[in-house]
Amino acid sequence: MAFKASKKREKKAPEPVGRGSPIIPNKAIEMAYRRSMQAMFNSMISDYRDKIADALSHPVMERFYAEDASPYSTMASVLNSLRQRWSKMFESFAEKASKEFVDKTEEAATNSTLFSLSTAGLEAPVKTYNRDVQNTMEAAVEYNHTLITGLAKELHEKVHSAVMLSLTSPNPEEQGTSGIQNALREIGGFSKKRVNLIAEDQTAKLYSAVSDERLIQNGCEEFEWMHSSAGKYPRHSHQLMDGHIFKVNDPRLWQVGGEFDLKKGDLGPPGWAIRCRCRRAAVF
Question: Same structural domain for residues 180 and 49?
Fold first, then answer.
């Protein structure tokens, strides 16, 4: 009788003995951060609109449009004054707002992670600070400060370009007050989109980073990926990852292609990729 070799059995990963609740970013903190930034940028754009309108009604500007006089020094002075004023204001605002946002987000992310650990079966998860958590917070404060002040500078450059274009463009829609007002409306819409993205992305990223630190701190080496279908265009790779168990800092999460066919914009743990709404849950 011929001998038949048995099929090779695949070794399955053990089922988790404890699964925690999903760690979900705090929407109220994100909304508060968004509102504070948007109010500041709205004030900036409104001030630019008023000061530029005043400058355009100056006799020098009226002669420019009537007689081709030179208005550049007048507008340059106005724009330079606005730049200096708002640069100082945004430095002060960014310093306060970024730290306040990071402190609140870290506390909420820590509490959510500890609750996930406790529902997974850990009796007394710890909340004490360590150097890794502190480094994460300091880096987040600095980065958010840079994002805010950088966007302010970008908006100033956009307004500066629109004003200069209004003085030189042959296109009637880009000339004078109407051209500048149109540009300011577009810049206002642009700032709103950028502020929304910053608030959403930075909340998710900080939650992701703090959760990793708190899991490691409490001896939890793994989490379960929980895909969210809330996004308009769900990532196929993240759908494939749903329900899988990953090590914290698992190299597969940062590998383009690989087991889950990750694209460059898909990389990282849950919530790290831009507009990723996936969650994680602590598992033992």
Answer: yes
| Residue 257 burial (10 A CB sphere; 0-12, 13-18, 19+) | exposed
Q: Which helix (H) or strand (E) holds 246?
A: strand 245-247
For residue 215, the enclosing domain spans 19-63+72-220
- For 69, residues 6+ apart whose C-beta sits below 8 A from its C-beta are 60, 63
For residues 207 and 104, is the Cβ–Cβ distance under 8 A?
Answer: no
Q: Is the pLDDT of residue 245 over 70?
A: yes
C-alpha–C-alpha distance, residues 98 and 137, integer Å: 10
Residues 152 and 247 grouped into a single domain: no
**Window from 109-123, 155-169, 193-207 with minimum mean pLDDT:** 155-169
The verdict on residue 36 lying in a domain is: yes
Closest CA to 191 of 146, 147, 151: 151
Q: Taking the chain, what is the end-to-end CA distance rounded to the nearest angstrom?
A: 47
pLDDT reading at 27 higher than 60: yes
pLDDT at res. 162: 85
Q: Phi then psi for 21, rounded to 5 degrees? A: -75, 155
Those residues whose C-beta lies under 8 Å from the C-beta of residue 121, and which sit 6 or more positions away, are 17, 18, 284
CB 172: neighbour CB atoms within 10 A?
A: 9
Residue 281 φ/ψ, nearest 5 degrees:
-135, 135
Tokens 């950028």: give the residue.
194
Beta bridge mates, 226: 279
Question: Are residues 185 and 259 both part of a single domain?
Answer: no
Compute the radius of gyration of the chain from its Cα atoms.
Answer: 26
String of b and e for 122-151 (b: at least 16 CB within 10 Å)? beebeeeeeeebeebbeebbeebbebbbeb
